[in-house]
Fold each of these.
Amino acid sequence: MNSRLTNYLPVLVVGLLALFPLVESTFYMQLLTKVLIMAIFAMSLDLLVGYTGLVSFGHAAYFGLAGYALALMSPKYEAVSLWWSLPAAIGVCALFALITGTLVLRTRGIYFIMVTLAFSQMLFFIFHDTKFGGGSDGAYIYVKPAMRLGDAELANLEKPEHFYWLVLFLMGTAYVVLRRVLGSTFGRALLGIKVNEHRMRALGFPVFRYQLASFTLSGSLAGVAGYLAAAQYGFVNPEILSWHQSGAVLMIVILGGMGSLYGAVIGAFAFILLQEVLSNQAWFGAAAKHWQLVMGIFIMLIALYLPQGLAGLLRQFCNKSAVKTVDE
Amino acid sequence: MCGEPILQTKGLTKRFGGLVAVSDVSLDLYVGEVHVVIGPNGAGKSTLTNLLSGDLPPTSGEVMFEGRDIAGCSSDHISRLGIGRSYQKTNIFLPFTVFENCRLAAQSRTPHALRVFHRAEEYAEINRLAEQAMVVTGLGHRAERIAATLSHGERRQLEIAMCLATKPRVLLLDEPLAGMGPHESQRMVELIKGLTMDHAIMLIEHDMDAVFALAHRLTVMVNGEVLASGTPEAVRSSPSVQLAYLGGEELLHD
């Protein structure tokens, strides 16, 4: 019964989320859109951190790069087609991940953290200090991408509920695809590398190639999230490439629990909603300005008392052994 | 003895700075034979294994596998050529089940990495190899156990099982009996005997009963050098070996 519950729970959750626009106001819908975009971003990082054993502290590079790609591809007062701009943005991220991956994957541990950070900072300063992407002011995307099929409009992304459904669909798809990938021989090899890289090599696995594939896949998926985020806000600036952003998504993964995929989704909900609540001036007045302090304490407590994150808490409720669920 | 050696080293040397860990070692491995390497701690036995398995690149010398020089190749490449190794210090995937440990090892033989939408358990050939490796090493009844919960002896068995699941033709076994009880040791000796027929085995071992029960050829290493090599009887009666083992190492340097 428990395994059935864990199988159908994601479907149930996505189903309920899909109904949300029918009952709620635009404000909460947009907030939830933001949560789901961060969930995609966090899942992409979990593939690296939780399943390949690589802690990247520069994941905002791919998120921001895709955002800038959309901004630069969009004509000023017209919509760009989603059909080619999304794959193009993903392609740019995949290429950048492939190139940086071949370099950063020669390092491990703390050095890997530093080198990934260095690459994302490099990108940050390229966009910050050149006029190419609007410098420190950033660039606007006045019209959201269009989803047309011939003459018919499949969805109007200017409508918040249409945009929300697209994001939900992409998040669900990303979850299902990653689940399948992680359950395949490729995914098992990644887990093996995370647990014991040396032995994997001795068993004949070309470890570097597996890690590079994982790194590229992860960067591409972060690109999907970055594209959607840029489309939602209608502008990009160098902040989406900054290390704050890399730190935030890492915290989401840790908060939710590494190496479970749904932990990344739970973490995104917890982090964004908590941020929203704690910074609400109507409720907390002057203290709202210091929401990061409370958030910091909260994350420290989670790290201390729930090393498996919120997903671990959920598993305890479902009364399943941690190892079994991770293996699924 | 049985035609060409499958693995052969010539003048194999490894230096770590000023220290010569392995010096000018030449030895041959034949299919159907167990070649045992003995020697005191620090003699360079494990370093020799690391040179053959690609964990370390040699400083100089050749490692010929089926007639081609593989010295300096990466360990994953050497493993795929058909040279498997087990570790002195157990080196397994502790959070995985015994079956998954063996399945992963067997998976390395089949290039399915890009079929990312097939479940890992759907490959009959991989599963068969994994099952076979578990049964041969006596772990068949432990398939679903998490490796971290196994006893020391069982972990040593799993170490060998993973190696076998990669279908190697050369086995490099680094002290497989280390820390085992007499009963477990006996089983391991029987297991290695059973593997001899279709593998070339290099065995590093301290347990002299096991050494003489298994060895077709025996090489004694001291301070990185081969002191004596040949049939067990010949090595046993060699004066220099008797001096090294009975008189202590210091005598050799006087």
Amino acid sequence: MTATIKVNGVEHRVEEGLSLLEALRRLGYYVPSLCYDDRLSPQGSCRLCVVEVNGRLTTSCTTKVQDGMEVRTDSEQVNQVRREVLRLLAMNYPRDAYVKYPFKEFHVALSKYGVEPQGTSRPDLIDNSHPYIVVDMNRCIKCFRCVKACDEVQGYHVWRAWGRGGRIMIRPDGPDLAHSSCVSCGLCVDVCPTGALEDRSVLTYGWPDTWVKTTCPYCGVGCELEVGVKDGRIVDVRPSRTSVVNRGNLCVKGRYAWDYVYSQDRVLRPLIKVNGEWREVSWDEAISFVASRLKEILAKYGPGSVGVLVGARITNEEEYLAGKFARVVLGTNNVDSCARVCHEPSAQGLEDMLGTGGATNTFEDIDLARTIMVVGSNTTENHPVIGNRIKMLAEQGRVKLIVVDPRRTEIAEYADYHMALRPGTDVVLFNAMANVIVSEGLIDEEFVSERVEGLEEFKEVVSNYTPEFAEKVTGVRADVIREAARLYATNKPSMILWGLGATEHVQGTEIIYQLIDLALITGNVGRPGSGLIPLRGKNNVQGTAIMGDHPKKLPGAVPLTQNIERFEKLWGVKLNPNPGLDGIEMVEAAMRGDLKALIVFGEDVVMSHPYREMTEKALSKLELLVLIDMFHNETSKYAHVFLPAASSFEKDGTFTNAERRVQRVRKVIEPLGESLPDWQIIIRLANAMGYGDYFRYSSPEDVWNEIRSAWPAVYGITYERLDKEGGLPYPTPRLDAPPVKVLHVGQFTIGKKARLRPVAYIPSPEQPTEEYPLTLITGRTLYHFNMGSMTRRTGNQVIEPEDFIEISEDDAKALGISDGDMVRVTSRWGSTLIRARVSRRVSKGIVFATVHHPEASINRVVSPAVDRISHIPEYKVTAVRVEKAS
Amino acid sequence: MRPEVESFYSFSKVVVSEEHCRGLACYVARSLNPKAWEMAVRQEPPTYCLGKCYVGPSSSRTSGVPHIEVRSSRAVVLRHIVKGPVSSLGQYLELGGMRGLEKALRMTQGEVIEEVKRSQLRGRGGAYFPTGLKWESAYRQRAPAKYVIVNGDEGDAGAYVDKFLMWWDPYLVLEGALIAAYAIGASKVYFYIRREYPEAVASVRRAVRELYEAGYAGPAASKGVPVEFEVHVGKGSYVVGEETAMINAIMGRRPEPMPRPPYPTERGLFGMPTVVNNVETLANVPWIVENGGDKYAEMGYNKSRGTKVLSLNSLFERPGLYEVEFGVPLKEVVYDMGGGLKGGRRLKGVIVGGPLASFIRPEELDVRLGVEELREIGASLGHGNVIAFSDDTSLLELLHEIVHFAAFESCGKCFPCRLGTARADEILEAALGRGYLMPEEADELKSIATVMRSASLCGHGQGTGDAILSFLAKGADEMVRG
């Protein structure tokens, strides 16, 4: 619906229902405002956006467009209000800030209306405590944007308004910002119209002269960033205001933790290890060394002796080339990605049962869900932009929330039902939920009869898992299981999102089957607001398998065995028909001496695989270990060659996020030193191996166009279209049609009907014993990402300098451990020292340790037990003993 | 309540043993007891109006009751308390109480609303919005819950009718609230009373208990309306009397006004349709339902129908509460009812509906009491408080007192009010020392006030702007020099 309005005598057609302020701005009229921001609810407090509507003064931010409105944006009455309010604001406002930063929203308005501030600053109003955010309250005009942004968008109450009238003070909820509950998302800085809250980086390096839109290099949410550049250097990162993914929001990692790019210890020249010492060499020397060693090993031991591991940080194009390199150049299917140690069960489970190994719905559907079940995900810390969105919906009563997690995480505190199960008993819990749905007749009969098979067998299996039985095994009260099951089954549409708490178990893939089963029997698939979304870990881990970084799958995530001919034709070579080894198997093969050479793209295998002692032994046996990375890590101790890779800010390409959305990665700055984008490194290696003709690409876009021909689901996605329309989820098979956002509508990818997969419970081998009485869960925190190789090289390290282990008050007391003590954690597999945090987030008998720092390296302790189907290690269950370190 | 929200209120943490009133009515009457006024000026934080304007300057220890008189053709609001306090539900019933409610319950909700619409009753809180339309709007909303808020935050200095209604006849107000709750289908009534009226708080609490026990209210009401009552007591804020600010206050948020639309009847307390009615408004309702809206509308003048209670300040010879019909000339109020000023003082002007209002000069007193009539001469009716002031108060001092109050009470949300009141206070403070405003100061004040009046978010800033402009227009001769 459009409305016709007259602005300053000129007629315009505008969208009805829009605020008048938005409408006027879209039409190009200048309407100043200091309290309005399109991410916040309008508050109508600064009164600068007043316009005349049919002769009456009104604030345009709180007025909706109506047909026939006559609007004046620049009458004398309007200008008088603006001038006078600005004059009053400027009376005590520091003049130097106005002169130095003329582009700030408030300063622009001042100069537009010819008002010059005359005030000065008091040094005691500046808070320099926070590593990223400088607070200068001399410049605070009490617009409340920061207060509202923190409250309405992020769901925190860091910024608080004290007092009233002219005595209002805006202060953080601690003695200073660094000692407040701030999660450093930077939204308050982004909304601040004056620079009272400002990024330290722009104060240090200056205001950017250009902004480049790209995609965040951290988690699978895939937020869009605006990266500010000055004199060829990144000086700031801000959220994209137009992104449908992050909607003008970011977390501390995407927003602030980018300085690793300039870290002093970044490797900027190729290295070869000679007599245990790294020696800088030229690219030519490094490449020809790797090529000749690979040729020797291939000649001596055959293609089964080499492997490629992809860390999922690189672009789709590079992942595609890495897989192609393994198959075409090395002749092996030994290629895998770090998805093996995080979400492979999710991709595998969804593909096995529904036919597509990806989220069934997009993040946009979160707003449409009436019930959300979050399983094994500390969402507000690990996928904060999505976590806070769910949290706010729950807080506002717009969604019912079920959280399944042994820990009382932040999101669990917002849940209607928090099922804090004993670690590793997920199968019993979900079977009990299914039991309730079946026994109480809550199955969606229509959906099931049309689209689901295997119900009888399923019913039989779940019939043994009564809520009372589940209560004994999981520790979750039977009535809570019942209530949650009823809610999920009846308050539809219901959506399930999960993290590694669901997958990193010996029955990880089967747990995903169970979640899909629950969705199928309640008709929660193939509908907006329903479905299943794995919250994938790394920026481009969704891309790995579909780009072919998988021992049994070719690009498009199609089975190797059935598609080999098609790819032989496309690539023009004979391909090895034997399925390869996955990441876990490659390390085992190295241990046995069967794998001799390994190329690793951006992963710290020593830190990320379980049972570190074994991994180190295995890697030390390799004849050639090539690391392609930005920094030395624990694995480089065993590497022979180190090739310096460019960061994602230094190259073009695409990432695929957790909702299957392909988004552009854009080159913001030139690669530092001699570092090269991974795609160029692969081409150089292919050339040196004599396969140059198969790797003739002049740009990532070239590679993408080959991917489009190899995989029909992305044929409709071109760089041109991504630049114009923004990210597009696959499948987008046609150039002239929109993407398919909700999968399995009317029909599953796998066919008309999906088959239920009942799962019987097999307890983890890691059961508590007298010697190892506690159960260890491992995971991440807000401030660090995975093995910390990036975040440890940023200000995040100042905020959170080391790993920690959460222990309950009861256990801590019994063991004589106080908060902050160093403790020794020991399992059957190893032992390490780590700092204790006595916490109410874990229950008695459970400890939780973070995984980010090589000093603690908790994976020394983690059990090597793996899932039967996809070989994911059980990072979430290890029996341990904790003692105060002497 | 979160501590930073608490910090909004003057008296969230502070306790003053004896509170001295710094309200405008006590200010203009300071010559009656200069010592008491000095105490008020020294008190920190200040207390703006204890509702004892008939004996001002007053303190929390001042006793005495006002003269109460009915001058309208029929007694409506003051019909009980004109004879003294109603001290129990039994006594209230004996006086004929609850007949309005009983009749309402025999009518449909629509019929009750229709009756109120016919009465042409307008909200006595100062905005004079038709009460029937407000109820109808809330009644028409489809929502899982609806609320009635009784606004007992009579903060306008000089007015004390609500105080005596709550204190002496709470049953009448509660009966009106029950009828409102029935009419719109509310499940809960919130009763917000300012902290400066402890007697009213005790009385309303007691009356609610009695209504619960007698089955007129409460979840198990047998002969009334099954609604819960919750009594909220203020902590020291003037702006909280604004209806959207009060909604925020009850929700535990900063009591700041919110832009409208949405109106509270669409999205109010906890996002639900909410009717906010002032105490005196509701005190009219039982009579209207019992006797019919037409009967009520027979009284009054022009667009202002029915009766209004006026509160006269202590500077009058006969201060007190007077129930009058709209249309009575102000002259009659000042000289006939009030009996002119005490001790032969010369009347310099009258502030009606203050403190954030224009003043009326003696030569303008022919004006008839009515919303539109007063508006025509640039004044307002507000709460019906009539504050007379005499020669010993200069206009500059008076305006400063008003603006100082406005700055102290500004919530600070909207920029024109937060910045404008503070700056105007600064200018007037400086002018006080010298005894007059310089022309450029007057110009700046005018500029600030014009913007406050036209662009402030709520009546606080708008009214302050009005007051400054009217003082500058009517009193420039006295106030500006050079």
Amino acid sequence: MDALTVHRLHFAFTITFHYLFPQLTMGLALLILILKTMALRTGNQHYHRAARFWAKIFAINFAMGVVTGIPMEFQFGTNWSRFSKAAGGVIGQTLAMEGVFSFFLESSFLGVLLYGEKRLGPKAHWWAAFLVFAGSWLSGFFIIATDAWMQHPVGYHLGANGEIVLTSISGLLLNSWLFWQYLHNMIGAVVTGSFVMASVGAFYLLTRRNEDYGRTFVRLGVIAGTISTLLMAFPTGDGQGKNIAFNQPPTLAAMEGLFETEQGAPLALIGQPDLEKQRLDNPLTLPDALSFLTYQRWGAEVKGLDAFPPDRWPDNIPLLYYSYHIMVGLGTMLIGVMALASLGLWRGALYRSTARLWLLLLMLPFPYIATTAGWITAEVGRQPWLIYGIMRTPAGVSPHVSTGNALFTLIGFMGIYTILAILFLFLVYREIDEGPERVPEMRAATV
Amino acid sequence: MQTTWFSLVAVMIAVYVVLDGFDLGAGIVHLFVARTDAERRIVLGSIGPVWDGNEVWLLAAGGTLYFAFPALYASSFSGFYLPLMIVLWLLILRGTAIEFRNHIQSLVWQPLWDAVFAGSSALLAIFFGAALGNVVRGVPLDASGEFFLPLWTDFSAGQETGILDWYTLLIAVAALLTLTLHGSLWVALKTEGELERRACRVARGVWWLLAAWVILIIVSSFRIQPHLQESFRARPWGYVSPLGALAGLIGIRVLTGKRNGLAAFLCSCLFILGMLTSAAFGLYPYVLPSNGDQAFSLTVHNAAAAPYGLGIGLVWFIPGMLLTAGYFTYTYRNFSGKVKAP
């Protein structure tokens, strides 16, 4: 293995593991706010307890997000120093803003949310929930703004020594790429939060414990899940797809396995990209559908990989193709499951339908897989560029950090994260097992 | 403009050390000061609601350093690769220990996390101290402003040095002592009874060691980095920082154990701020000096981002920091007074 590969795996592994947590943080923050709102409007203790229960799980999840998040900011400097030196004046802005505007907010008011309920009363406590929600969604904004700039750099000019000089902060924060990517990502977080909540609710109903909470969790999870899974596909997924189609056409071609430029390009549902023969093996396609989805004309021309020089192709086409198709396939499945569940909810049969509750329970891993596949699509799709069109990936690594050192720390992270994952699952299971009834209003001053 | 951002980054780092410093210090001393599970819960409770917010200062200072001095961020983070990765792992272990300790009531679970909390806190203090020592001593920068340091070589602080040598170890021990003192003063401030008395006892004992050590590091710092002397000679008003540190140190001695624990703790804050600003003042305009050819040193000028970014940065940074000051005032106010037993 060469140093570049190890540095790439280093970032890929740590960011993939990290993002398992913030997606639930951001999704749950909204759902907890909804529970707090219901509690405030009805005055019903049931909703207060439900919110308190989820706030506890939120806290464990948040702690995991914090401890795995710090290495992300550091890694720009440690493993990608040439990239940082060139682009730090631009993306450092959004990363610093994240610290200043969202992390301080989030960390200050999470303490209030967890410990301050008795002292503050319901209204002020609702505000704490709101500020935690605002902090986590702002944090998402600054991170997506950073990624959006790497996908679609704007508001800069190139200096004499190849340094990238920021010329417009509003360009950076209002990047045209950012709008759909941010919405697509945040609604993805709501999908994860909804499925987790519905899944825990289904678990309670199936095990006949805390059944009134089970019904609340299933109801809120299914309603939020139905709306969010649909919004994932349209308009946010469609908008993000157009970002790629218009700004990264070789990526679109590789994602879709379109090797040749075609008028009336087909949409591949299944198939395996065959790089040697430059075609899709065993394809099952919808004729003309890709042209329609991209340009709203069935006969429009879509450029295939043959239209671009191979040194502009993403460097791992099969990985890109599969992760994109897994994301879309799972997204479709999640829409279907939520549609089925909301039908049951509407007819009043869902809480008693063992089969549908099992289905909700077993769906738990799939939103995580879908969001991970989505991010792999975005980041592998950006290749061979580190900053699209400006800096290629090999040009960004730290020149003096050797393969062995990087491999050593990668293995170290793998070990530590394995233990963290076991701890996380163990502690969250204990909270779920204990149930919402036994969560005290305000625990002792200790954590 | 570069000087403004140099000062802002230095202040942010100093605030981080003052705030997260007492979390680390509480971690270092809690095994000795708090004997029973109930006492340890109180010590943990004294930092529980604030430690995460305090740690954010590290991230915010890192982010600010990143956009204001990208070349410095790139060079130092990749050059200090190994110790930084160890710092990251220690931060992960510390956070996990604080957050997960009280989830399970068991005679094995809590002692395990207590040991992890104490060990990671002590090692973090040592590594942060060593990092500061490296910046003061200088590193082997090449013409492109890059370097890579092994963890240690022959401890000689010469050209072929590593992260750890006699000088950086000296600073590392100073950091450990400083944060031990800082943490025990915090624990004394936030607790009462036997716990408070024990914390004061630790603080008084550590004070003598630290006072002796401070003389040692001042003498060796001026020897190892001649630029410090030039700075203070050229701008004598800079003596205000070391004098502040001295006042803080004396204040700690006089006020520890007196009725108001707050005064002693604030003196400790003053001591830390004084020491760190002295270092920053002494190094300026260097941000990372070379220990070889001075022409390769990184300064506030050659490591800074372009003027537009620095200017626009102030526009959002100032309101952002005002908001942050508001949150922190609110949080600490809410959390004032002694932590009661659960």
